[in-house]
Amino acid sequence: MDVYNAVKDITDPGVPAYMKSLVNGADVEKAYKGFLEFKDVVEKNQVSAVGAPATVSTGDKIGVAAKALSDASYPFLKEVDWLSDVYLKPLPDTTAPKVMKAIDKMIVMGSQMDGNLLKAAAEAHHKAIGSIDAKE
């Protein structure tokens, strides 16, 4: 529910009806039951210790590109009005099916990524967010 509540204000109200129109009701109930079982397993198996940091070789093409992106992005990010309501408004010319297709594509692409590099990227983002000037 926390995920739903976090995105409900920026999600087109037609998304639930659209999603329901694509599936069989019995299948939805079965999937929901499976989701609740999964939730229980996750809840009972919480991570109690921090894992080792990801390892990424330095000086490789990805590292060099990441550094260049970081150096170019930081000045831009400092100019962004993070309190603006523009982030809550629907994207122009976007429909629920288009958004769902894009989300599906991101999930598929993410599942094919190198887990170690994905973890390193998440750690880098976390570090960067934590080091932004206090006024931002």
Binned strand content? under 5%
Separate helix tally: 6
Radius of gyration: 19 Å
Report how far the terminal alpha carbons are from each other: 29 Å
Overall domain count: 2
Question: pLDDT below 50 for ≥5 consecutive residues: which ranges?
Answer: none
Helix fraction by DSSP (H/I, runs of at least 4): 55-70%
Mean pLDDT rating: 82
Dominant shape: extended
Annotation, overall tally of beta strands:
0
Summarize the main sheet. none
User: What structural class should be given to the helix and strand makeup?
Assistant: mainly alpha
* Helix/strand order, N-terminal first: HHHHHH
Summarize this structure as a short list of keywords or feature phrases.
plastid, light-harvesting polypeptide, 2 domains, chloroplast, chlorophyll, 0% strand, 136 residues, Peridinin-chlorophyll-bd_prot, mainly alpha
